[in-house]
Design brief:
mainly alpha
């Protein structure tokens, strides 16, 4: 069993909690209030701007051209594919690009992105890869879980599921998991313990991100 699969199995209770979260369930059955989806859209756009930086840093840390090229392609995919989808959503929701760009991160979004960027700057390529995997692979698995239960009538939520169940998006997560497996080969247990911690805390923040959107979290003062 590869290292990435071990991590997924070790955190299965957490992922099951994500699948059962009311925000995720509402996406799947179409009952999610649209103001909560708009909140997710604004916060996720800000999150992706920081998340994309991880791939630029991954390219800088890559040991070979193949890995460097993958990180470069993923950077392009986040900035010009996933974020473009968010911009199209925003236009249909009556949100301007200025509103997206100038929004303020909620506390959880800020904490999560700072955790990711700290790992990217200070950690090894293995730490970086373990840290980014829960978001990349987790969205595909969450959308798959919902799609197996049926497709919502709400066009926004249906398109969300279509994007994250697409072959193109799944391939990104599969490559990332494979890269982590390759990087883990021959690593000492002390290093893998740190990588496990990075993965676990990103997965925890994935749950907290959904909760943040459900509660429409704001700064208290």
């Amino acid at each position: 069993m590869g290292f990435s699969r071990q991590l997924r199995q070790e955190t299965d209770d957490l992922w099951q909690a994500i699948f059962r979260h009311p925000f995720v369930q509402g996406l799947g059955d179409g009952t999610l209030p649209e103001e909560k989806f708009r909140y997710w859209l604004r916060q996720d756009y800000l999150y992706l701007k920081e998340y994309a930086r991880m791939f630029a840093l991954g390219a800088a840390k890559a040991p070979d051209l193949e890995t460097m090229g993958w990180f470069a392609r993923l950077f392009d995919g986040i900035v010009n594919f996933e974020m473009e989808g968010h911009r199209r959503y925003a236009q249909r929701f009556g949100l301007s690009l200025k509103e997206l760009e100038e929004g303020e991160m909620a506390p959880t979004c800020r904490a999560y992105t700072r955790e990711l960027l700290y790992t990217s700057w200070s950690g090894s390529l293995g730490e970086l890869t373990a840290s980014l995997l829960p978001c990349l692979e987790g969205y595909a698995e969450t959308a798959d879980y919902l799609a197996k239960r049926g497709w919502p009538q709400n066009p926004f939520y249906r398109e969300w599921m279509e994007m994250y169940t697409s072959k193109e998006f799944k391939a990104l997560g599969e490559y990332c998991a494979g890269l982590l497996d390759r990087l883990a080969e021959g690593q000492p247990e002390d290093a893998l313990r740190v990588w496990r911690d990075r993965y676990l805390h990103s997965a925890r923040f994935e749950y907290l991100f959904w909760e943040m959107c459900w509660q429409e979290e704001a700064w208290p003062v």
